[in-house]
Write a structure and sequence with these properties.
heterodimer; A: 229 residues; alpha/beta; 5 helices; B: 393 residues; Cytochrome-c3 Hydrogenase, chain B; 3-stranded antiparallel sheet; globular
């Protein structure tokens, strides 16, 4: 077992762009075993997404995002022009929409295209980009049995129109995005933290928030202990 | 009530002959007192650490607000700091009564991102275990839900029978609850000797037991009084609020991810989607009972035709999906469980979002409890079937 751990943890430390020997390693070991460096987990990584060259486990076919066209996309493209881009990746369609068009597009998707079920709203943080956040709506249409993702980019500190009036389901989902990323939603009926305590400082799913980081002051005052760690 | 006794004996504040000097208090003084009470987080009927703030008029609920997050462990943050393989056991800790479903959703999402497919044999094993887990989850729901409403016997019956499922899990992968049954690319373990026979034995064992639960409850007068027309929610309201799973189906919307967008091997099996008509607590009970029977049907078909072959696809030892993002969802016992993964081409997810069915379904609680009595709130919390581990993640 000792030897297996060593091989495994060596492979684990390989970062993007490392050699491919680890990928072709003999596949006899059963379970990976406990990580060696569990006490020092890699803290929130802040590098940008590397180029596509870093990843190629499937040598035969690396999927790429390709432009996607449909009558719906054509209609909106003629209406909104360059503010809208439609792509498909691994069979999943997504629209990349300019932030200023978001309220209109979402409403049209709900009313005209029957995307009546808002599956999820979430965000992704790219700290090195100028507009730091990707905001993503995952939609589903019962009548068409289709899924669609709508993406937009938004800067830190900027706000975006709430979609609670379009899908009531967005209420808690937007609150969670606010809680975890600090993105403001204009017109939300009750925008406050949902999973973390109200007085907490910081937004933990931002990349600059470390995994061991806590609001020490809150912990000391409210829990009466020195540290939560 | 701080009203003089003589007033209440003569009809209270409505008597025009009262010589007390205060303003007209309205129709009756009973509805003038709004009461805010706190339920939980240490309340046995909230199934974990759910706190509900209720605004009451007497016994009637005027409104409610859920306070959640007591079990928040930052699963999504942990995912960003673990490799794809290392994160696999963590998903079991979200909906811990349906750990197999969580694992299936996660493994399939990463497989999609890697553009690999699990071999057919692995898919059959996955379907069998996931459906067994669905039955176990519904049994636990039934036992605790009935206990909340006041029926104690079903709890013992369901836990007795759920044990048989946990024994199969234990024999298969060594764990009963947080199973970590699947791996990215397939299954780690081949079925043990006698697996098929034991599963078939379980099917013949549990079918009459489900009838037994129904005999205890379905036409039980107290059960019907407590559940019929309680917590009614319409189909359009469910869709607007994003409610999925048995709650949506009990409101008459025949939608199930297993049928709408089949995953694993579900497209190969013949099963029905049970639906309700009224969308009340009783319908949700009937839908879940029917779902257990449908699960038995699926398991029976699967276990009789497990194909031969490998159980693991060719997946690299170190998982490094190409740059891209994927959303994949499955029908967990609670509803649509989705994973949204953003890969930056490294060994760790750049971002992993879990779309938890319990969290979204809990949002409908406020709508469902308005106008009900306090005692019905307990029935409604039970009927949504939440697991706080998944609500808070």
């Amino acid at each position: 077992m000792r030897c297996e751990f060593a091989i495994w943890s060596k492979a684990f430390r390989q970062q993007p762009g490392a050699n491919d020997d680890a990928l072709n390693m003999a596949d006899e070991t059963k379970s990976p075993g406990p990580p060696e460096d569990v006490k020092n987990p890699p803290l929130g990584r802040t590098e940008e997404r590397p180029g596509a060259k870093a990843a190629a486990p499937n040598k035969d076919s690396v999927p790429v995002a390709v432009p996607w066209t449909s009558p719906m996309v054509e209609k909106y493209r003629s209406q909104y022009g360059s503010g809208l881009d439609a792509q498909t990746y691994l069979g999943q369609h997504y629209l990349t929409v300019d932030r200023s068009l978001i309220p209109n597009i979402l409403r049209l998707l709900r009313v005209e295209e029957q995307f009546d079920y808002c599956v999820d709203i979430t965000a992704v943080h790219y700290p090195k980009r100028e507009r730091q956040f990707d905001l993503i709506w995952m939609l589903y249409s019962f009548s068409r049995n289709e899924r669609l993702r709508v993406k937009t980019q938004i800067a830190d500190g900027a706000s975006i129109a709430s979609s609670v009036s379009i899908w009531p389901a967005a209420n808690w989902l937007e609150r969670e995005v606010f809680d975890m990323f600090g993105i403001q939603f204009d017109g939300h009926p009750d925008l406050k933290r949902i999973l973390l305590p109200d007085g907490w400082k910081g937004h933990p799913l931002r990349k600059d928030y470390g995994i061991l980081q806590q609001d020490q002051e809150w912990v000391q005052i409210n829990l009466g202990i020195e540290s939560g760690q | 009530m701080n009203v003089p006794a003589k007033d209440s004996s003569t009809g209270g504040a409505n008597t025009s002959t009262s010589n007390l000097e205060f303003e007209e208090p309205g129709e009756t003084y009973l509805d003038s007192n709004e009461l805010i009470i706190n339920m939980g987080p240490q309340h046995p009927a909230t199934h974990g650490v759910l706190r509900v703030i209720l605004k009451l008029d007497g016994e009637r609920v005027l409104g409610s607000e859920c306070v959640i997050g007591y079990l928040h462990r930052g699963v999504e943050k942990i995912a960003e700091n673990r490799t794809y393989t290392m994160f696999n056991p963590y998903v079991d800790r979200m909906d811990y009564v349906a750990a197999v479903s969580n694992g299936l959703g996660y493994c399939e999402a990463v497989e999609k991102l890697l553009n690999v497919e699990a071999p057919p044999r692995a898919n059959y094993i996955r379907v069998i275990l996931t459906e067994l887990n669905r039955i176990a989850s519904h049994q636990l729901w039934l036992g605790t839900h009935a206990l909340d409403i006041g029926a104690m016997t079903p709890l013992f019956y369901t836990f007795r029978d759920r044990e048989e499922i946990l024994k199969i899990f234990e024999k298969y992968c060594g764990a009963r609850l947080t199973t970590h049954a699947f791996r990215i690319g397939g299954c780690q373990y081949e079925t043990y000797a006698g697996f098929e026979k034991e599963v078939k034995n379980f099917l013949t064992f549990v079918a009459p037991k489900i009838d037994e639960y129904e005999a205890l409850l379905t036409s039980n007068r107290i059960w019907m009084e407590r559940t019929k027309n309680v917590g009614v929610i319409s189909g359009p309201d469910c869709i607007a609020l994003g409610v999925t799973g048995p709650v949506l189906r009990a409101s008459g919307v025949q939608w199930d991810v297993r049928k709408a967008q089949p995953y694993a091997a579900y497209s190969e099996f013949d099963f029905d989607i049970p639906v309700g008509t009224k969308g009340d607590t009783y319908d949700r009970y009937l839908v879940r009972m029917a779902e257990m029977r449908q699960s038995l049907r699926i398991i029976e078909q699967a276990v009789n035709s497990i194909p031969e072959g490998p159980i693991m696809a060719r997946v690299p030892k170190v998982i490094k999906p190409p740059v891209g993002e994927i959303y994949h969802s499955i029908e967990s016992p609670k509803g649509e469980l989705g994973y949204f993964i953003v890969s930056d081409g490294s060994t760790q997810p750049y971002r992993l979002r879990v779309r938890p069915p319990s969290f979204v379904n809990l949002q409908a609680l406020d709508l469902m409890v308005r106008g009900l009595l306090v005692a019905d709130v307990v029935a409604v919390i039970g009927t949504i079937d939440i697991v706080l581990g998944e609500v808070d993640r």
